Amino acid sequence: MSEKLKVGILGATGMVGQRYITLLADHPWFDVVLVAASPRSAGKTYGQAVAGRWKMEEDIPAKVKDLKVLDVNQVTEIAAQVDFVFSAVSMSKAEIRQIEEEYAKAEIPVVSNNSAHRWTPDVPMIVPEINPEHSEVIKYQRERLGTKRGFIAVKPNCSIQSYAPALTAWRKFEPTQVVATTYQAISGAGKTFKDAPEILNNVIPFISGEEEKSEKEPMKIWGYVDPQKKEIVPATAPVITSQCLRVAVLYGHTAAAFVNFKQKPSKEELIAALEAYSGVPQKLNLPSAPKQFIQYLTEDDRPQVRYDVNFEHGMGISIGRLRPDKIFDWKFIGLSHNTARGAAGGAILCAELLKAQGYISAK
């Protein structure tokens, strides 16, 4: 009998759900035993449900292809078959908040790619290398929900992965002000070039809700768990302002960032801090953890999506073009893979961390 944890994927037919399917195909800890989606896909095999809209380069794993798709609203039936679920459902935020809480109250841990619960005060929003200790808030969330096993944890927005890790590595230099402009891939909207003709020969200077997420979400990640309030209290610095643009790239979010520091680090100190930075996933050698979380590239024209987006299988962050600025102290370019580190891969690494910490286990 397999010792792997039994995993269900909610929203399995969408682009992020498909990425979960491919990344978990040979996972050493997790076994996809159930897929769920909207009622229109329910009753079909997974292969039938994604026919004509499979967006991954890899083939559908044979084991998953013939699984019957369940209606994501069948919470009791699904909860009986799995140890925990990944959530990538496509619903309104109110509906997502409700259904994820229903799963948690059915004693199923939920690791979510969705934004609906990112600002629920007792829901941890985790980048495992940055704030693994935020899982401590789960005990307070369970008190609120009245659960013993069930809880919700989320990963942050894909756009911040291209610059927040660098700023984290530089926290000891006390960054005070940040300007971050992100140039975001179309897969961040769940699209490929085939179904996004509007992006060809174009740049779209608006992504709904993205700038607010880019400015606020790092503050929660850099915050702390307050045992009196039983919630996560966000950090107050640095102040971040951002602009987010959609560009004609399939995978990879690029950031152009400017930073002021209270301390005045040298370029050598900044690069050394990037290259030395690692976290709990590296110490624990978690299955999806990159060996090197952040790399610094010295070439003038790097990082580039074409060459660097798949660094550490898409789970690493690439930084380059660190140089003094005339208005700010320093400026740099960052790059992250938006559906690996930024979406499904980041959530899988989060689940690995939560398993290692004892929050996710077999029933």
From TrEMBL:
Pfam families: Semialdhyde_dh (PF01118), Semialdhyde_dhC (PF02774)
Record GO biological process: methionine biosynthetic process; threonine biosynthetic process
Annotated CDD domains: ASADH_C_arch_fung_like, ScASADH_like_N
The protein, known as: Aspartate-semialdehyde dehydrogenase
Coiled coil: none
The organism of origin for this protein: Liquorilactobacillus nagelii
Entry similarity comment: Belongs to the aspartate-semialdehyde dehydrogenase family.
Keyword Oxidoreductase in record: yes
Organism placement in taxonomy: Bacteria, Bacillati, Bacillota, Bacilli, Lactobacillales
Residues forming the catalytic site: C158, H253
Highest rank taxon of the organism: Bacteria
Keywords per UniProt: NADP, Oxidoreductase
Domain Semialdehyde dehydrogenase NAD-binding span(s) in chain numbering: 6-138
One GO MF term: NADP binding
